[in-house]
Amino acid sequence: MQEIEFNRISGLHPKAAALVKQLHAVSYTATVKDIEPAGLLALARLYPIHVVEKESPIVTDAKDSPVQEEYTFQVIAGFRLYELMCTARVLSVQDAQLLNLIPVIIHQNIKPKEIVKLAELDLAGSPLLFSLGNKVFEQLRLIKKHVSADTLNVLPKYRNLRYVKDTSLPQQADELDA
Amino acid sequence: MPDWSFAFETFQLDPEQGQRLPSLLERLNAPADLVGIAGVFENAKAALALPLMRDVSSLDDVVEDLRLLEELIYRCHAQITPAKKHQRLWRNTSQTELDSFLRGTFDKNPFYSLFYLNSAENQLFFHWLRQFLFTFRQATMQNYGISIGFKEHDFNTISIMMRRLTDENPVGPEWLKKADCQYCPSYFAFIEFLYDLADYFVAHSELPPDYRTARGAYNSEDPRQKNQYFYQEIMDVIKILRITQGFEKKRRTSGPRGGQGPGRDIVSGLSSHGISALTGSALLYPETLIETNGAPDTLYSLLETDYGEDEFDAGEELFEQPATEAFIFAEHEPIEHYITAFHGRRVAGAVRKRVERQHQYLPSSFQSLSGTQLRSILTVCFRAKDYDPEPAKLILLMLFCARHDHGFRASRVTADLSENRFDVVYLREDGWEVGLPAYTINYEHDLRQVDATPLAEGVRLPFPDELVEWLEADISNNQLYRENRLLGDFEQTAGIDIFYRLSMQGELSGISLSQVANHLFIRACQRFGSATATLMFGRPAPGSQARLYYTALPLVEIRARYRELIEEMSASSGVPLTFSQNDDQLPIPSLSLGCRYLPTLQQYVDALAGLRKHLEQLKKSLLTDDQWLVFHNHFTVYSVLCQGLLTGMRPTHHGFIRSSDILHGVDVAVVRDKDTEDEFHSRTIPLHPLAIQIAENYQSHIEAMAGRMHRIGMLQPWHLLQCPTPFFFTNAGRKRKDGDKTIRVAITPFRPKKYADLLAPWIDLPANSHRRFLRSYLDMKRVPAEIIDAYIGHGNLGEHFWHAQSTLSFTDIRQALRPQLDELIRLLDIRAMTGLCS
């Protein structure tokens, strides 16, 4: 694991971006206001974002210019965390500057096929691994009981676990939840 | 048209995509051999991934088309393999000089090299340029419709100048390095980059003194001549690019063209006022009550305003407020006097007027009549019936119609007033009513045709019984009504003489004719505000016209208010004036008088209910296709509409009071919804709690939506546009062919036109109609005009609410408005909806 500047990540890898784009309408329990940047950073140490290097373009203009060499990175897995980090920075939430330097795993010499596989695994596997079954808020309340307040400080979602009916989901999903 | 067979062979597209290929290659200005096209594709992708500029992003068709082409670019780019046969298509890694690699394409394909070029100094500037070049023809055509004034050689001029930016002359690259091109929201912003470049160039290179006018020479030995040539090239390109803004480029050989030119009309008839030429967007309006009897001190304001596209789309009225320049001058003064008197008058006059209006006074030189004076006039005139009816009648009509004597010239007697067509003053035969022509409100633009309720052409005022009796007797006894004329020849010409004849009797001494004619008008201004007074008596009131442009009142209400005035007059004078006839006995149609396009309460009730139902339905299908994007658009429209009805926010700029605009704790919003050069248009609005709730719901909605935006790659463009809130997705939810679920949208910041278009299925009126509705509604509820002014942002020049001299406090406003707004919420059923929440 390595720490890199957030600005050096140019975005999602094109292959991954195409996959992620298909799942644009999916909704998650937490929004950007539910996890503070400090929490996001701690979670990134636990589940690092995976990146690959991207070559910079060759300069071509009216005069003869030298080739520049500065590499940037593209994300191939850890999308949800990366998404929340981007959102936090864009919406300039408090302490968003904590995310200027983030831990990542840099993959070298990885084949395009493997990139797709890793991305797909993240998209399909992570929700299975992490989503709570039914009665989300009840379960969160249970978790809250057994975790120290110190830890929960960076997870504002736990401050107010009032069940708000999620009207943005289709009716059937609500029934399952109940 | 070039032969694209090589391209078709290379890219192997399905027939449908193949159809679009020629149009793509033409836009990229590609040569038939597609040399280095891979580099062009890379750049085009990057340019289109940036947020689309406003001129493009608000056009559904253009965005759809662009996204299709973007897809095609990805497709074609993927078809280029590292195989030897495609070598020529790749970006050349060994030759990085444009001239050698793209030799032979510059003349025929001027833009191609710009699409290919990679700059070490400022790639972003060239990406914006590429977005501009890729879209400008279509966008200009859509935005301005008519034929576009580009010439073929214009494109070469652009190409040469842009390439020259990156060559050996050090100033170009220096500027590129320093220029901040992170953010380019519109074509105009891009053109501003070039202005900046021109300024930089002037400051940092040696130029001959005549550099602005002469051309210079590129091949000259003198570097100054060379610089001058380059400077002129930049200016040329600016002029060419400005065509996309609807400007016309002056060409040496061409004659006048159509399109938006500076050609403005000269308003005739004002030369006698010492003004020889007024522009088409100027209005002369009185700052004091108009005097006709030779009074020299009538003050006028001459207004000229510049009018932004957004203000036009929003339906804001040009003459609504004093803006850019205001000249106040007295009639018949030579021009030098205006200049010398200008500053002093403007400052002193504004302060005086502010104090007077704040305290509900009109200028002291035009006081209305006292109770005793009224009593004298009424008794003298009523008594005069038997021996001198002609002048008495004129004076009574002047008093009750609040008109000067000349206003009765060409007046008529008629049997029936029910037609509501008034060109002159009409008196009903039985004397019960008088009909006055409506005041003509000046509009700069005819907006699009909408289903708006028609307005009455005149107002009918009821006369009190005592006057009716007097007039009736006059009609039956007197021959003056010959040829249906209300007044005889004698009266029509000799108003002043008559008055002096009466005042000779001693009882009326000290009363001027103007006082008689102005009394009721001033009382109406004081009691109901200048808009009601103008609508009631059909004459202009001094000061800002804003109230008038936003008020429409039913005729019934105007009549009711007139009765109140007469009753007040009766009380103060002690002369009995009674109304025995009720309005319901009279055939009055339910017409209104005042501003155009006034929505009804029911229209808003239906619109809000319809939108809510639509949103509830959309919420059920958020997982399918791009329905959440459609939901966002309509949720935005709903939030803006609901909040607008509670705040009177202008639908320009952001059109919405965001959570960040609110001073929480005092519940006050500080916003800017209007621009003029003096920048004095920030408004401070006391908020209703529901308006705050709406703002907060919208904020949570944006937070919940940000993740989704990231996934479709729209978060970054939104960020580059500096996170405009609220915003719309252009081209969301449009029907595509079967199975095609690709999202093709752009982000466009709030714009009144887009807002009105999205709202049109529910309420098809100009975007700012809610302000007319609110003003008229509150006026109907008898909220004092000053309070409405402060709330809606109408005020006279020199008046600032919450200023040290202002006598209004937030508490006043809140107390006056809260019950009315609560009732409005109940009547319209305004509710704060939640948007996306996870």
State the secondary-structure class of chain B.
alpha+beta
Instruction: Give, in spatial order, the strands making up the sheet with the most strands of chain B.
Output: 4-5-6-7
**Count of DSSP E strands of chain B?**
14
Order of helices and strands of chain A: EEHHEEHEHHHH
Q: What would you note in describing this structure?
A:
The complex is a heterodimer of chains A (178) and B (838). Chain A has helices at 14-22, 37-46, 79-90, 112-130, 136-146, 149-152, 171-177, and strands at residues 2-5, 9-12, 49-54, 72-77, 101-107. Chain A is α/β, with parallel strands linked by helices and 178 residues long. Chain A folds into two domains: 2-131, no CATH class; 132-178, no CATH class. A five-stranded mixed beta sheet of chain A has the order 1-5-3-4-2. In chain A, helix 1 runs parallel beside helix 4 and helix 2 (37-46) packs antiparallel against helix 3. The N and C termini of chain A lie far apart (41 Å). Residues 166-178 of chain A have low confidence and may be disordered. By secondary structure, chain B is α+β, with helices and mostly antiparallel strands. Chain B folds into four domains: 5-245, no CATH class; 271-366, no CATH class; 371-594; 602-828, Orthogonal Bundle (hpI Integrase, Chain A). Chain B is built from 31 helices and 14 strands. In chain B, strand 5 and strand 6 form a beta hairpin. The radius of gyration of chain B is 33 Å and the shape is elongated.
Top keywords for this entry?
heterodimer; A: 178 residues; alpha/beta; 2 domains; five-stranded mixed beta sheet; 5 strands; disordered C terminus; B: 838 residues; alpha+beta; 4 domains; three-stranded antiparallel beta sheet; 14 strands; 47% helix; elongated
Quick overview of this protein structure:
Chain A is α/β, with parallel strands linked by helices and 178 residues long. Chain A has two domains: 130 residues, no CATH class; 47 residues, no CATH class. Chain A has seven helices and five strands.
